[in-house]
């Protein structure tokens, strides 16, 4: 199935100049738990935000229409480039495929996404990318309150959603 994952602040902010506008180790741990061993799909800008380093122990697919999107051939080692979303949708029929952003990639796959994993941080940050999709076709089935401590200073929660069957 296709599963979207993202973190947001109270204003649905998800990015600042290609990276996360906060540091929240609990969210990074959650992301790793949800994606390890799975196929992850991201846009070219999100991959650039990872400093062109594929996520380890995951199949990394970068969506791009550009023939040579990176400055160096080393930037695409251990990643697959494609512009074929139908191929990814078909892959989601046989395995969990994690759609990890950015904004345009979420919008592109939105009609096909069956589950969501959303971290909400109870704070407001400065940034330039917001994502506030209509969740009326989804229902929350699990909420986990994040633990606040010296390293995780922002209150937060992890919410699991599934698309309603009637849709």
Automatic annotation (TrEMBL):
GO-annotated cellular components: cytosol
Catalytic activity, EC: 1.5.1.3
Any GO molecular function: dihydrofolate reductase activity
Highest taxon listed in the record's lineage: Bacteria
PROSITE patterns per the UniProt record, alphabetical: DHFR_1, DHFR_2
Biological processes annotated in GO: dihydrofolate metabolic process; folic acid metabolic process; one-carbon metabolic process; tetrahydrofolate biosynthetic process
Domain DHFR, residue spans: 1-163
Pathway: Cofactor biosynthesis; tetrahydrofolate biosynthesis; 5,6,7,8-tetrahydrofolate from 7,8-dihydrofolate: step 1/1
Pfam families, alphabetized: DHFR_1 (PF00186)
SUPFAM superfamilies (alphabetical): Dihydrofolate reductase-like
UniProt keywords, alphabetically: NADP, One-carbon metabolism, Oxidoreductase
Catalyses which reaction(s): (6S)-5,6,7,8-tetrahydrofolate + NADP(+) = 7,8-dihydrofolate + NADPH + H(+)
Family classification: Belongs to the dihydrofolate reductase family.
Primary role: Key enzyme in folate metabolism. Catalyzes an essential reaction for de novo glycine and purine synthesis, and for DNA precursor synthesis.
Protein name, UniProt field: Dihydrofolate reductase
Organism, as annotated: Aerococcus agrisoli
